[in-house]
């Protein structure tokens, strides 16, 4: 995995010209390729506008500033103010952590106010967001957000909890229930999870979020059920920028083509994808894959797993530019996009993360090695063979 980011600074500089924002008909704002992109290229490397712990339990395990795993040898530096959080280094201790979160932890009221994990996450977000300096808070509020779904978070109750936990003089101007509701919508529509890195022998069930982060530019990436890019976290890598989001191209992307990621595991079935997108993001997906799967009969879903299509496409080469989009575009096959899953879906048992090629070498040579963005598995391109005809799709 380390080879994916041998020189993050150089790679980030090379990615600076890869994307541009565009207004896309029917899709709102998005990011498109500003030039031709090769597979594995880093498209974006961006620091977080806002970082906050996923739960109170994270405070015992991770640095409160950079979310690296805290050393097990008691070398962690406790927060001088709240003593509930700790830092991995003097530099992180000097950077501190969100002031309102620190204040809420100082008098012990936070654990009482948020006994359930479902309440902890939005409350930790609000205390961290309201700690931002005014320009950063305005930048957060400028992000797009979907309308709240039925049964959305109790904004009024969370607002009252923030008011009870935070010193009144520390709250920003304009602090109000409406502002709290607006912030919660930004969190729901724009936050990325920073995952616990997979380690050999680790149960995949332990792959949970250490923290959440908001990245203004990455938040412009729209969803596609057959994405052409995916994002990575490297929270324990040495040096600065360990919580930066890294987005890499799955395959060649032509100039002006929209760059998309998947907002969840790519092997979800059609009904589950549509439900999640509608509830959390306020839209129904009409991508090529969804148009094919929408025609499947519910009673045939378990049988129609794309095996036949995959066997037919097994020997086909990746067309490169724009990936699998044109393979089986007429929709005659049961699942014309099955080759996508053979090539880009991790086959580690229970994982189903996305496999992106490692970046090309400085001389432009392609790596032909793929890295999973969830478990970190490295797989050679020649090993991307179907397992007895199964695409790994859930129907």
UniProtKB/TrEMBL annotation:
<dbReference type="Pfam" id="PF00856">
    <property type="entry name" value="SET"/>
</dbReference>
<dbReference type="InterPro" id="IPR044238">
    <property type="entry name" value="ASHR2-like"/>
</dbReference>
<feature type="region of interest" description="Disordered">
    <location>
        <begin position="297"/>
        <end position="331"/>
    </location>
</feature>
<protein>
    <recommendedName>
        <fullName>SET domain-containing protein</fullName>
    </recommendedName>
</protein>
<feature type="compositionally biased region" description="Acidic residues">
    <location>
        <begin position="299"/>
        <end position="331"/>
    </location>
</feature>
<feature type="domain" description="SET">
    <location>
        <begin position="17"/>
        <end position="264"/>
    </location>
</feature>
<dbReference type="InterPro" id="IPR001214">
    <property type="entry name" value="SET_dom"/>
</dbReference>
<dbReference type="InterPro" id="IPR046341">
    <property type="entry name" value="SET_dom_sf"/>
</dbReference>
């Amino acid at each position: 995995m380390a080879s994916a980011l041998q020189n993050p600074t150089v790679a980030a500089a090379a990615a600076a010209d890869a994307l541009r924002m565009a207004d896309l008909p029917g899709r709102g704002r998005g990011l498109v390729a500003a030039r031709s992109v090769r597979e594995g290229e880093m498209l974006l490397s961006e620091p977080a506008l806002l970082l906050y712990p996923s739960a109170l339990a994270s405070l015992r395990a991770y640095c409160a500033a950079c979310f690296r795993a805290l050393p097990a040898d008691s070398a962690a530096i406790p927060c001088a103010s709240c003593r509930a959080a700790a830092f991995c280094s003097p530099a992180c201790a000097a950077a501190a952590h969100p002031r309102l979160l620190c204040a809420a932890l100082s008098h012990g009221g936070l654990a009482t106010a948020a006994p359930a994990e479902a309440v902890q996450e939005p409350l930790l977000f609000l205390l961290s967001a309201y700690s931002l300096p005014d320009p950063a808070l305005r930048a957060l509020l400028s992000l797009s957000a979907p309308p709240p779904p039925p049964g959305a978070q109790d904004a009024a109750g969370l607002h009252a909890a923030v008011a009870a936990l935070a010193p009144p003089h520390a709250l920003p101007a304009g602090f109000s229930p409406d502002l709290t509701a607006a912030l919660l919508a930004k969190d729901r529509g724009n936050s990325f999870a920073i995952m616990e890195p997979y380690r050999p022998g680790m149960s995949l069930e332990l792959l949970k979020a250490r923290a959440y982060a908001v990245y203004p530019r990455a938040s412009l990436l729209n969803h596609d059920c057959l994405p052409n890019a995916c994002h990575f976290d490297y929270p324990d890598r040495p040096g600065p920028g360990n919580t930066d989001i890294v987005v890499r191209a799955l395959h060649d992307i032509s100039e002006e083509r929209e760059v998309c990621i998947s907002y969840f595991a790519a092997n979800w079935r059609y009904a589950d994808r549509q439900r999640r997108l509608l509830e959390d993001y306020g839209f129904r997906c009409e991508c090529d894959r969804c148009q094919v799967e929408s025609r499947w009969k519910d009673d045939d879903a378990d049988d129609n797993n794309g095996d036949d299509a995959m066997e037919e496409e097994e020997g086909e080469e990746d067309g490169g530019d724009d990936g699998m989009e044109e393979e089986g575009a007429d929709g005659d096959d049961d699942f014309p996009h099955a080759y996508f899953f053979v090539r880009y879906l991790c086959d580690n048992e229970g994982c189903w993360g996305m496999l992106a090629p490692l970046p090309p070498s400085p001389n432009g040579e392609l790596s032909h090695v793929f890295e999973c963005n969830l478990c970190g598995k490295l797989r050679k391109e020649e090993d991307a063979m179907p397992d007895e005809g199964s695409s790994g799709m859930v129907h």
